[in-house]
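Crash report, auto-generated. Payload:
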Amino acid sequence: MQRMTKQRSAVSEALAGLEDFRSAQQLHELLREHGNSVGLATVYRTLQALAEDGDVDVLRTPDGEAVYRRCAQDGHHHHLVCRSCGRTVEIEGPGVEAWADQVGAAQEFTAIQHTVELTGICSDCRPVGR
Amino acid sequence: MQRMTKQRSAVSEALAGLEDFRSAQQLHELLREHGNSVGLATVYRTLQALAEDGDVDVLRTPDGEAVYRRCAQDGHHHHLVCRSCGRTVEIEGPGVEAWADQVGAAQEFTAIQHTVELTGICSDCRPVGR
DNA sequence: CCTCAGTTTGACAATCATTCTCATCTGAAA
DNA sequence: TTTCAGATGAGAATGATTGTCAAACTGAGG
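Recovered output after restart:
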């Protein structure tokens, strides 16, 4: 059974106060700074549990680090990340959702989940003069 | 300047003979089995170089391992993977490609790249009786 | 074919995120 | 308050990936 411990709520609260993705290590550091000393292993365990319950989204940075963010209350969406400066824009994919379910059904797959991430070069990073 | 060495061509050849994604470790093992003894570090370096040149695609497995595949000559496509047994189906996303470019352009991003992966439970793994 | 400089290689050490271990602690039900 | 299964944390362990550096190799010239 899941218990409500101070460290578990501390992690949840930290996530609640953030808009974007953070790594387990960053969250751990953040908690320490705020006086909430929580073990690194516990941060990992808690994030894992939250991810399983669908309370947080997980994705991988290009270098393989896992980053977490509380599930957007404002609905499911995806990201467009600048490969140069890391600027992130949240986007919605009305068509993509439907497409994913449709494709899955056509292959006789159920419980379809999808990962869609876009990367590009943002206007600020585009070489000047063009 | 890039030189052509036997290990470099060995890696390329190994990739040429494969359809799906393999990790650096798997490729390393594969090469050893075929008598092409190549250092693990070299496999990593070569794959990195190939990825930079856009000759291979890289993506991350859910547990963070990097997997590589030669760039599909047969056109860009995505995967639908069974979360239970790992069975993989290749799928095409006519609409998704267009959607990605469109969304990117709307945000003033250029050189858009996208990652789209679907997971689900395949018919073989679905609980019987329903 | 022979030489030479700059590359590349490979064995092994070093990183680094994440997971495991296990003794100790704690929430919450009775 | 008692009780104990679930939870914690310090540190070890794991495993992929990268760094190190002397030795081997490639390719251009001669």
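Post-recovery validation: The mean pLDDT of chain A is 82.
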